[in-house]
Amino acid sequence: NCTYDDAMIASIGSLALSGDRFIVPPITLLDELITVVRPTAPILPSQLYPFLGADFVACYTLLVSKEFEARFMRERVFEISFMYAVYARYLLAYWEDTKTAWVSLGKVFEGAINVLQHDIMSKYETNLSRGVVMCKASRSYQDAEKNAVMYNQVNGHHDAYIWCRDKKKKGAEFAVPMQMFRGPPQRWLGRQLQVSKFSANKVPLLLSINQEARPVRAENEKKIVNINADEMTSVSWLWPGRSLY
């Protein structure tokens, strides 16, 4: 018999608390197999589900401890997985119609946004054809990577950016910030809409990434869209603030 922790380290499934059963997926593909079959695969399994990576498994005990360092590591693991989840959602939408690299922003976050904000998201399109770009130096709204999910690996004004455009103004492309919601009130997030050095080039939209569904604040309804991370990735429980015990 193996414990839940043993099973998670082995990356073989998840525990269904309601029925006290351990559920094993029918097929689990490792990075090594994917790279042999398709060397140019846009996403590797461990990038979406880190438990499939040997490096992650090796430090699992530390990750689930209550040490401050573990909190930081869990935060980073979740955020990187979330970036690839956004890219994966983009690919699924793009593969439905490959005539253009631009897809509906609402389609990418379908099921993870409040119904009150569907119309706002439907106004925009996103192009993430270059995949996920990891930046080791802090980058801002003005110098975000084009046609990509850009993740700031060091502290920046925003945690990440995705490349977008207004459907009615297709010549005007811009970066939309994604901010990981760690507790500050949304009026603080509201101030982040005004980050451009150029008054004529304000941030038109900000995506607030939350561990779970949050109510929409009326004063920010058209500018700050709440994203429920639980609907985007299976590892949001790693995020600090979510109890592991």
Topology, pairings included?
Blueprint: H1 4-10, E1 14-16, E2 21-23, H2 31-37, H3 45-48, H4 54-58, H5 60-63, H6 68-96, E3 103-104, H7 105-108, H8 118-121, E4 124-126, E5 132-135, E6 149-152, E7 160-166, E8 169-180, H9 186-191, E9 206-210, E10 224-228
Parallel strand pairs: 5-6, 8-9, 9-10
Antiparallel strand pairs: 1-2, 3-4, 4-7, 6-7, 7-8
Query: Tell me about the biggest sheet?
Result: 8 strands, mixed
The chain-level structural class is: alpha/beta
Mean of all residue-level pLDDT scores: 79
Count of individual beta strands: 10
Radius of gyration: 19 Å
Summarize the structure.
By secondary structure, the protein is α/β, with parallel strands linked by helices.
Overview of the molecule:
The chain has 245 residues and is α/β, with parallel strands linked by helices. It contains 9 helices and 10 strands. The protein has helices spanning 4-10, 31-37, 45-48, 54-58, 60-63, 68-96, 105-108, 118-121, 186-191; strands at 14-16, 21-23, 103-104, 124-126, 132-135, 149-152, 160-166, 169-180, 206-210, 224-228. The model is unreliable at 195-200 (pLDDT under 50).
